[in-house]
C-alpha cells in the first residue's frame, strides 16, 4: 500500500471527524496520560478519537465503555457531558455490536482485521470468544506508543485469543497478513475506523486488498471520509450510487448506514454539527484468492487422478 506508506510520512493527516469542543469543566478520576509528540498529526488524530471515547464512557448512560481510552488523554482534558451523542461514538457502538454478533453467531468467523489509527482498544475491551485472532493494521509509531500506555494500565487481551499487529507502512500488506497467520480460506470480518486515508486511490487499494483476502460471505464495515466521494463529483449522481459502484466493482454488496437511524434505534439524540464520514456495511459476494487457488488445485488433482485411472484401464 505505497500510497498509505507515503501518507504515513507526510506532514499532514486526513482528519476523519471534526475537532473536539468541550462544554464543561467536570473532571473524572479515571485513567489519564500525558500527550505524546504534539507535532505528530497521526498521533494527535488518534488521541482526538480516544478523547471522544473517554468522554462517552463517562456519560451517565454511555453507548459503550472504553476503560482504556483515558490512558491516551491529557490529564487536564475538559469533559462535554451534554446528552447528545457524537456521530463517531454512535458509529463505534454500531461497529462494536456488529463485530460481536458476527464472531459469536456465525460459525467459523474467528479472524478479525481492524484497520485503525493505532489506538483502537477493541482487542482489549470487547468480550471476544475463545480462539479469536485479531489483526491490527495501523501506523507503527502510534501503535507502539499506545501499546506502552496500555501495558502501563494493565490492559490484556482476553484469554485464548491472539492479537497481532501489522504496520501500515509494510511494503506488502497481503503478504504481511499471511505471514502473521491470516488464512484466506477462512471467513473473516474487517473494520475500518481511523486508518489514515489520503486519497481515493489509497482507499481503492485497501478495498482491493480486502476483496482479495476476504472469503465469500465475509463482512467489511466502518467509516470512510465523505470527501472520497466528493473527489468524483460530476461523475456520480449520488453518494449511494458511487458507493455501490465502487464496492460492487470489488465484489461487495454495500449498504450505507444513517447515523440518525442508529441514534433513533438507541433512543439517543444525535449531536448537531457537520460530520463528514460515511458509515457502511459490505458483504463479500465473490471468492478470495486463496479459495480460488484451493479449488484450482483440487480440480487439477481430480483431473490428474482421472487421467491416471483412465491410463490403467488401457
From TrEMBL:
InterPro entries: Ppm1/Ppm2/Tcmp (IPR007213), SAM_mthyl_Trfase_ML2640-like (IPR011610). This is S-adenosyl-L-methionine-dependent methyltransferase. The keyword Phosphoprotein does not apply. Keywords: Methyltransferase, Transferase. GO terms for molecular function: methyltransferase activity. One of its GO terms (biological process) is methylation. It comes from Carya illinoinensis (Pecan). It comes from the Eukaryota. Signal peptide: none annotated. NCBIfam families: mthyl_TIGR00027. The keyword Zinc-finger does not apply. The lineage of its organism: Eukaryota, Viridiplantae, Streptophyta, Embryophyta, Tracheophyta.
Amino acid at each position: 500500500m505505497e500510497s498509505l506508506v507515503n501518507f504515513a510520512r507526510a506532514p499532514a493527516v486526513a482528519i476523519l471527524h471534526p475537532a473536539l469542543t468541550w462544554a464543561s469543566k467536570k473532571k473524572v478520576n479515571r485513567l489519564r496520560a500525558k500527550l505524546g509528540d504534539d507535532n505528530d498529526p497521526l498521533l494527535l488524530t488518534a488521541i482526538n478519537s480516544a478523547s471522544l471515547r473517554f468522554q462517552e464512557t463517562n456519560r451517565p448512560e454511555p453507548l459503550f465503555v472504553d476503560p482504556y481510552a483515558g490512558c491516551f488523554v491529557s490529564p487536564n482534558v475538559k469533559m462535554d457531558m451534554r446528552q447528545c451523542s457524537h456521530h463517531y461514538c454512535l458509529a463505534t457502538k454500531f461497529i462494536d455490536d456488529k463485530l460481536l454478533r458476527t464472531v459469536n453467531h456465525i460459525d467459523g468467523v474467528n479472524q478479525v482485521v481492524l484497520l485503525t489509527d493505532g489506538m483502537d482498544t477493541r482487542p482489549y475491551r470487547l468480550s471476544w470468544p475463545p480462539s479469536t485472532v485479531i489483526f491490527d493494521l495501523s501506523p507503527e509509531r502510534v501503535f507502539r506508543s499506545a501499546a506502552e500506555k496500555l501495558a502501563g494500565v494493565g490492559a490484556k487481551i482476553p484469554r485464548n485469543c491472539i492479537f497481532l499487529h501489522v504496520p501500515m507502512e509494510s511494503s506488502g500488506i497481503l503478504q504481511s497478513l499471511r505471514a502473521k497467520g491470516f488464512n484466506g480460506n477462512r471467513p473473516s470480518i474487517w473494520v475500518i475506523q481511523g486508518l489514515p486515508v489520503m486519497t481515493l486511490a489509497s482507499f481503492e487499494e485497501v478495498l482491493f486488498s480486502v476483496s482479495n483476502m476476504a472469503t465469500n460471505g465475509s463482512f467489511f464495515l466502518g467509516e470512510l471520509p465523505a470527501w472520497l466521494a466528493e473527489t468524483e463529483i460530476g461523475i456520480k449522481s449520488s453518494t449511494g450510487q458511487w458507493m455501490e459502484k465502487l464496492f460492487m466493482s470489488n465484489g461487495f454488496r454495500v449498504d450505507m448506514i444513517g447515523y440518525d437511524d442508529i441514534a433513533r434505534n438507541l433512543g439517543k439524540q444525535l449531536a448537531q454539527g457537520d460530520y463528514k464520514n460515511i458509515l457502511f456495511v459490505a458483504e463479500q459476494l465473490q471468492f478470495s484468492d486463496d479459495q480460488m487457488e484451493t479449488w484450482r488445485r483440487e480440480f487439477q488433482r481430480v483431473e490428474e487422478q482421472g487421467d491416471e485411472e483412465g491410463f490403467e484401464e488401457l
